[in-house]
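Comment thread on ticket #2218

A.B. wrote:
> Attaching the input chain for the structure job we discussed in standup.
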Amino acid sequence: EQSQTLTISNTGGEALEVEFTGFVTVTDIDGNEYQTVQIGDQIWMAENLKVTHYNDGTEIPTGHSNSEWGNLSTDAYAVYNDDPSNADVYGNLYNWYAVETGNLAPEGWHVPTDDEIKELEMYLGMSQAEADDADWRGTNEGSKLAGMADLWNDGNLVNNPEFGTSGFNLLPGGYRNGNGNYYGMGYNGYFWSSTEGNDYLAWYRLLDYVNSEVSRYLNNKRGGFSVRCIRD
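C.D. wrote:
> Ran it. Output below, let me know if you need it in another format.
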């Protein structure tokens, strides 16, 4: 965590009110540093998680073949197309069992609940009813949450005038499906919530290049998605 010094002088007769968050970056147990962004009352990572160890130092399992990945009911991560350069830009793809450990985020942070993501979406313009709905909802909140237009395929997401305005900076990192195959880089950005739907499914969010809205849906816990963390 980066510390900053703020010096303010006031020579006028008016009372001075200063609100300052000296929180610029967060560092994970591997030493990766992440930019952060305040949106409403929440402080989010502005980058996808790329950590390879839990915050207690334990290695997160990886290196699974397609068939192995598809049969997991335990924690794991993957890198899109098994290409390390993709992790540098897009972070890792974690299955929900890794989220479920509760040890994925750096100390003082956590993977957001479904309700915490709804709070983010409502701050950006959704109604409660829209936020509570499933599938595609809202208007341009997906465009607001996305970032780095040059990584996205051309479509309604990047062409919305509100594209990138939240600072959340979600990228089209694609996913690894329940069969172990990789899909969607450049087209889709998925991220997990920590909230399960049932024994097999958990809630996630999806941004798609053709749509300025946000999809909220349930996916098999074996799926590999990006992870964003929120400050406790």
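A.B. wrote:
> Thanks. Noting for the ticket: The mean pLDDT is 94.
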